[in-house]
Amino acid sequence: MRRTGAALRRTLGAAACATLAVSFLAACGGDSGKPTLNWYINPDGQETLTQLAEDCSTDDYDIAIQLLPASATDQRTQLARRLAAGDSSTDLMSLDPVFVPEFANADWLLTFEDDLADQALDDVLDGPADIVQWNDQVVAVPQWANTQVLWYRKSLAEAAGLDMSQPVTWDQVIDAAADQGGTVGVQANRYEAYVVWINAMIQGAGGNILDPDTVEDGRDAKVTIDSQAGKDAAAVIQKLVDSGAAQPDLSTSNEGTSLGRMFPSEGPGSFMVNWTFVYSNYKGLIGQPGGPADDEAFEDLGWVRYPQTVEGEDSKPPIGGIEIGVGAFTEHPDFAREAALCVASPEAQTALAVNDGFAPTRESVYDSPELAEAFPADLLELLRDSIDEAGPRPKSAFYSQISNAIQSRWHPPSSVNPDTTPERSAAFLKAVLRGEALL
């Protein structure tokens, strides 16, 4: 798996020498020596990313890993401070999808044009392809994708009489867990993943937090969370709170806290919405605390598409992942673009999937023999379809304010009421966007 960038690097290198020879010679000439491109990454998949940096380094430049903080909020803050100051040492960045509109709107990202744009989007699923485009320009390269599915114990669903071969609703999942003494795991702490849950349920009911046709209008976007879809999403949260199936730490729950309740020492386990890493996580914990007791217990783990908010309406699974952006102030723009394409190549995505459980953005990678060996075929199909048909969070340059405004009015979950919460949050969000209220 350590051949990651070689093929693409040779291809790009040949093309680059032919079309960008003058600029490359200028960048490599003089007394500057061989340049080093700094790639700011988040802590996920460090070993694989470090290998990618080594594999995608060339005779013309080296790629050096620089580690960002673990928190997405802190990652955004550090990168934004660097870019706002015109930092030329920020060459490559691993970006959360919601950072892309903000950074592109601020002119902090270089664009990929013509053949480079085609390479960036070649074979990419619709969900990730949409994320990296701003004002009809490609402003980043999709490296890996993330989505949520419904993970569950097959024995729990069977005991509840729930047919998992058909789409299931949030109401059905909550009722099934409550009836059998199981739980429903979600992410409901006051942080970004809670907004991910809220947004997915609203979109699954046919609505949006902001009108998609106006979302790129920034502060003038139309707020649409006070809708029947907003009420439907709030009703699910209220039902879970009151059901007996909520996990005890609901108001502080995150991606990791609910993992241990899938395979408890006693009890039927749980249903849980969570990201793609779950399969590899439990596979690596067989026979260990927090994981399946043995291979037979691991076989009791099931997965299906994200639950429907409204019965009969297709769910809109969340989408996440990482996009590779090139800093607008880099002193080596051509090298940096080439490097960005290399670390997001099909070979790179294969390594990230097999080593770290990160789903590819390129459709053809799902058919690779490496993934077929590492993951069940039906799980790969589910992940690919969920990513392709995913529902994005509002694609706004002001997403940080939007997210914090939603969190402030929907948290704690026990305070959510379908009759009041969507209306209150809409009024506050409008005021925040207009600069009439502070977070």
UniProtKB/TrEMBL annotation:
Family that this chain belongs to: Belongs to the bacterial solute-binding protein 1 family.
Lineage: Bacteria, Bacillati, Actinomycetota, Actinomycetes, Propionibacteriales
Source species: Aeromicrobium piscarium
Keywords noted in UniProt: Signal, Transport
SUPFAM superfamilies, per database record: Periplasmic binding protein-like II
InterPro entries, sorted: Bact_solute-bd_prot1, SBP
Keyword Membrane: no
Residues making up the signal peptide according to the UniProt record: 1-26
Stored Gene3D superfamilies: Periplasmic binding protein-like II
UniProt keyword Transport present: yes
Record protein name field: Extracellular solute-binding protein
PROSITE patterns: PROKAR_LIPOPROTEIN
Any one Pfam family match given in the protein's UniProt record, by short name: SBP_bac_1
